[in-house]
Amino acid sequence: MALINHTRLQAVLSMSQQHQPQLIRMISTLLADAEKNISQIQSYAKAQQRQELQQTLHKIRGGYATLGAEDLAHASKTLELSLEQQLPLSETDLAEFISIYRQSCVALQQEIAKLQADIGSGQAELDIIQLYYLLRQHNMQACDLVENNQEQLKQLLTKAVADSFSQHVFALNFSAAAEILQPFLPPEQRSINT
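Structure tokens predicted for HPt domain-containing protein:
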């Protein structure tokens, strides 16, 4: 058993380069829910709500097993079987599971951070002129360009303006988004488009 099966995680992450940002966001959400799930598990165990505890463990096992968190999947399955067979659940078993859960989350977070750094370093500079023309042409590729360059947009436009800009793009209000972007075009481009 391994805390994280890197081969499986890489296979999941490389299934679709196009949808990788959404996949990373989904994994980040899964990781962000960990402490809430741990509180729920502790609450169910304390109240002897065995069926709810079993369902929560099953849900965790499914999500994390897909990402290669083998130790966590194994620990979860062991607890699930104990609950199914009406065996007593010790505090030690529960504490061990929670420890593995937290360690798996940390390991996955590190993998995601490495991947995001790799994506960031491999990313070309955002071509705002191209983005502007895609917006003016109401071309849906503008959505992908904005999705994949959020950090660069925040640096260029400031966070608040970038958030507003992204909202317009994802609401398909390309004209409003193009207006926000226009002042950031190089001067020679700005004069052509006024």
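The mean pLDDT is 86.
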